[in-house]
Design goal:
Number of helices: 7
Helix content: 55-70%
Order of helices and strands: HHEHHEHHEHE
CATH topology: Rossmann fold
Strand order of the largest sheet: 1-2
Radius of gyration: 14 Å
Number of strands: 4
Largest sheet: 2 strands, parallel
Length: 140
Amino acid sequence: MADASVWVSALVASEVHHTASRDWLGQRDAAEQVVVAPALLVPEVAAAIARRSGRSALARRAIAALLRLPNLRLVVLDAELAEQAGRIAADCKLRGADAIYVAVAKRLAVPLVTWDREQLERACDVVEVVRPSGASGQRS
């Protein structure tokens, strides 16, 4: 499961982790592995690209491309998941959106892949959190 930081880095060539994120996602695509994310991914990626570039049309194109990916599965935020994310936000002192990614990873029992420092530092007691360049389980 990858959060918005990975997707934005992969989509924006000027991002510091662009190559590592593209490589990581490309490996999953080549292996036909499913990459899961909460549906929140869509507005987060759109907002990040529009704010960085100042170009709404670019953000809309990025989202259209994202939604066409055959190996991307979006998880809908239901009441139970929202409650769990709320507890995680409170317990781990994470931002609300970050807690949603952690809650989805926990629900699916999969590692959370992110560049977000706070998730890497604060969510590791809830789920395994790794960087895209990290081997399984490595917080490199």
